[in-house]
Amino acid sequence: xxxxxxxxxxxxxxxxxxxxxxxxxxxxxxxxxxxxxxxxxxxxxxxxxxxxxxxxxxxxxxxxxxxxxxxxxxxxxxxxxxxxxxxxxxxxxxxxxxxxxxxxxxxxxxxxxxxxxxxxxxxxxxxxxxxxxxxxxxxxxxxxxxxxxxxxxxxxxxxxxxxxxxxxxxxxxxxxxxxxxxxxxxxxxxxxxxxxxxxxxxxxxxxxxxxxxxxxxxxxxxxxxxxxxxxxxxxxxxxxxxxxxxxxxxxxxxxxxxxxxxxxxxxxxxxxxxxxxxxxxxxxxxxxxxxxxxxxxxxxxxxxxxxxxxxxxxxxxxxxxxxxxxxxxxxxxxxxxxxxxxxxxxxxxxxxxxxxxxxxxxxxxxxxxxxxxxxxxxxxxxxxxxxxxxxxxxxxxxxxxxxxxxxxxxxxxxxxxxxxxxxxxxxxxxxxxxxxxxxxxxxxxxxxxxxxxxxxxxxxxxxxxxxxxxxxxxxxxxxxxxxxxxxxxxxxxxxxxxxxxxxxxxxxxxxxxxxxxxxxxxxxxxxxxxxxxxxxxxxxxxxxxxxxxxxxxxxxxxxxxxxxxxxxxxxxxxxxxxxxxxxxxxxxxxxxxxxxxxxxxxxxxxxxxxxxxxxxxxxxxxxxxxxxxxxxxxx
Length: 635
Prior knowledge:
9-stranded mixed sheet
């Protein structure tokens, strides 16, 4: 039967409804005649009416098509369709009056009205019965999804009413936190306590749980959903019906907040003054062009109208995305955008790129920057960050590029992790090259060092927002951990300005304001989304902040200089520092030892090389002990 039902076309279903309506007309007439008190039997009256009946049936078919009654599907037959059926019955009654008058067979008006009312009632009843028959056929031939409704309020009741006409979904029961509802029936469904969900699922063979609690905050809904998912249940959430139809705003508090909102100070975005001579009409290579810093460098360099931008990137997807974006931004200009897949560790390729495109400016942003990942993969981090920088800067010097700027990190200062150590080695390489080439060639090779970038890939704010979207908790390593922060826009703006004022050999540092406590940043993220922090003082809050302990290689605070000195440059946010560096022989020895360690895949040798040549380096175990001493109160 189900297969036959599914084979019916739309036209066939429409014709079936027309036939049903035409059958209901004689039935309504017989019913009306049976109530006639004139003394004639219903059968005699119907026989007298037979000559008129065919005309009435033809008119009825036409009216059904015109009003669209026969085209309305059974599960869509609601108030509007019932209204059209009323119009249909009224028009049929008028047609019957006209036909009987024309045939000189007048019927009492009461009989005509009874006929119209009877047909209206029969038509509605027929569709209700037919819908239940069709649903029964579907239910008998298909596996139904048995659902448990979490929330017996208005939304839950509306949901049950809607699902009862669905052929494949069967609402089984409610669960609700309101104790007053436990043990009662709502819309003929029992209401249980949430603590009995496991028992209900097993007993009633529940397939899915639908969360119908839109008044609850998003984090609390996510917490409930995670608890149910751990029980192996499929969970879905839905907004209230008033939200869906637009009378009430949809609750969407997790729209990403602009990172600058968490800066705690005014963002520095100086006009592009004094940088034109460094980038305008120049051929610029940006390594790591698909990363957070590299892509922003590409956008801002484009505004200086260089002759050519070479996007040098290891990730195909990242390169594709930034190339597509820059191509659109550069549309209508004569700026050439060249996307090149490659690694800074490949000396032959780097040499060819610099030569083939006659590069004049190199902005080196390519690096592995995530501290835990590099700590777990120290050889890869050292190869890319330290040896890759040596390859790129050496080939750039040999090619005679005008400017080279290394993008470094505050984690390079007395590092406690391999990422910071690898960046410090990269700085030492650039400082060595800069000292050797600055005087004879006038080439300007320099370094710029700054802290965390808000909103960059893998940084703390996007991580917090993703944890918030999942309902928390927000994880912070230690309540006293603090970091320097800038937005990617202002960091890149200042990097380009520093590169344009470089004379060669400088280590620039950016004024990043005061360090920000990560716990306070987590609170800001929670509160900016409209939620409250759940802690000992506020046990009913929405989101908890969980302290997980310092990770290997992580410091409590970061520094921007080794010497503690900052010398002004004429720009209020850009300084440079004077720091000791290694000699040419020492740098060569360090890099040679590092290459040997990498060639033999010897992590211990690599760490020993780093410890020997990087000032202030502590391995992650020693750093953890130091941090423990710093935060442990003295008794």
